[in-house]
Task: inverse folding
């Protein structure tokens, strides 16, 4: 074991081992502090996001209720124009079903166009071939 170096002022220089241990301890403390800071920031962001989404949900509920009242109003306007009550509400209901059917067909058509992760699958196959020693064939799109 080596003796610590003492400078002319009488201060003892720490050994390399002590310096390494101090650096490791300081690094550990720094990482722990950074993790705690990240947790605190995430917790605060989650609380803010929760409050925002709560307001959005309340707004969506109010808009939904308002939409229902609008549809009832339209039905009664049709009644005031001379249609029987059943006809006014029937027309509003039929229009809603037609709009819903159109949205369903458009959504279904778009859903059929959705493709999976083709490039990722191709790269995965190339990786498998590289590790298995096979000759990788060229893949389209890469």
Result:
């Amino acid at each position: 074991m080596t003796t610590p170096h003492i400078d002319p002022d009488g201060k003892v220089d720490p050994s390399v081992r002590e310096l390494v241990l101090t650096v490791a301890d300081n690094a550990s403390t720094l990482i722990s502090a950074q993790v705690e800071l990240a947790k605190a920031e995430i917790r605060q962001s989650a609380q803010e996001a929760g409050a925002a989404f709560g307001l959005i949900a309340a707004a969506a509920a109010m808009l939904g209720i308002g939409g229902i009242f609008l549809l009832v109003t339209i039905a009664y306007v049709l009644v005031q124009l001379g249609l029987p009550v059943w006809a006014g509400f029937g027309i509003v209901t039929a229009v809603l079903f037609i709009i819903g059917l159109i949205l369903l067909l458009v959504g279904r058509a778009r859903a059929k166009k959705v493709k999976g992760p083709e490039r990722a699958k191709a790269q995965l196959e190339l990786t498998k071939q590289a590790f298995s020693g096979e000759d990788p064939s060229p893949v389209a799109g890469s």
